[in-house]
Amino acid sequence: MRRLALLILTGLVFALVGTAPAAAQGRLFSQDSELHLTIEGPITTLARNAARVTDPVPATLTVTDGAQPQAFQIQLSPRGFTRRTGGYCHFPPLRLDFDHAAVHGTLFSGQNKLKLVTRCTSDTLIALEYTVYRLYNELTPLSFRVRPATVTYRNQPAPAREQTQFNFLIEDVDDVASRNHLTAIDVGAREAQPSQLDGDQAALAALFQFMVGNLDWELVRGPEGEDCCHNGKLLAASATARDRLMPIPYDFDFSGFVNAPYAIPPPNVHVANVRTRYYRGYCSLNAHMPATLERFRTHRAALYAIVDGETRIPDARRQAAHRYLDSFFQIIDNPAAFNTQVIEHCR
Fold it and tell me: Higher model confidence: residue 112 or residue 189?
């Protein structure tokens, strides 16, 4: 009996140790209170050269919340492609690389590489995009969690120029997979097929993109020479599984909900502007639409509450975002309109 009890106890210890990293990784995104950060480094040079140089540079990130500021030495690099090279963003999106051991036991425990969405042209647009992530979080845990942050960028060495922006951090895809007991997989641009998708999750993702008016995405495709999928990741039961693939969308700045001045429809989608909804889901997902519609209706009040409660969006833009949600629910509450704009418009 004592031996059996010892074996059980040992198993429990291993189980707890095995789950500790996932719990630690979730600490940063388990709250949605706004962080206050300062990043010091060669910010001016990094931003000026971002379109052609993505090499990391040493920087210091300081969390200024609380009585005792906490500083971390990081590697800072520009990331992304369109916002970094498109010529319309004044400041590139960033990647923060932490020393895994140095952040143990801190807010960033378990983190290694983090994406930071920065101000492209205005704080309002970033707040709107942050809200889109929050809307998808409300609908499904199979989504990238986000953490808002006011970030002060301080150029070093002199001249010590300074700017403060509203930004947000995005959860790493491996952490999304871990808390959903799945694995993030890498597949080529043409390796996955619509028939391999989990129908319920794919229908949810496709209809969500329709709700926010986003055209800049693919469920199982990517540009030639790049991995699947365009502005999305795939999760599966294991690294080798290729059925019931779960699409996880990201990057919503080209959506009609955000309505950025630089956002234009893709060349293969013939609509006047990004505010015009255009359904791009697969016809194979139509059978999953009744359950998907019910999920949106069940979460309707919570979706509106997220938009209406986001005070970092100015009143006029917040009211416009509310009305944009209204127009979506008007479509899904009208069977004829939904049939025409979604069911018969599939590909």
Answer: 112
Q: DSSP class of residue 227?
A: B
- Give me the residue spans of the domains in the chain: 34-118+143-173, 183-345
SS3 label, residue 164: strand
**pLDDT-wise least confident of 119-123, 149-153, 294-298:** 119-123
Q: What are phi and psi of 346, to 5 degrees?
A: -70, 170
Estimate the crossing angle of helix 315-332 against helix 123-139, to 10 degrees.
Answer: 30
**What confidence tens digit (pLDDT) does each residue in 10-66 have?**
344 333 334 434 444 468 999 999 999 999 999 999 999 998 999 999 999 999 987
The whole-angstrom separation of Cα 303 and Cα 163 is 32
Element (H, E) at 329: helix 315-332
Higher pLDDT, 162 or 304: 304
- C-alpha dihedral (124, 125, 127, 132), degrees to nearest 10: 150
CA-to-CA separations, 270 to 124, 248, 278, 280, in angstroms, rounded: 27, 25, 9, 12
Asked if 256 contacts 167 with a C-beta cutoff of 8 angstroms, the reply is no
State residue 17's pLDDT score.
36
Q: Where are the alpha helices (DSSP H) in 194-299?
A: 199-211, 289-298
- To the nearest whole number, what is the mean pLDDT of the chain? 90
Per 3-state DSSP, the chain is made up of helix, strand and coil in percentages (nearest 5) of: 35, 20, 45
- Residue 207, C-beta contacts closer than 8 angstroms, at least 6 positions apart: 279, 281, 289, 292, 293, 296, 342
CA separation for the pair 111, 297 (Å, rounded): 35
pLDDT of residue 159: 67
| Distance, CA of 293 to CA of 187 (rounded, Å) | 30
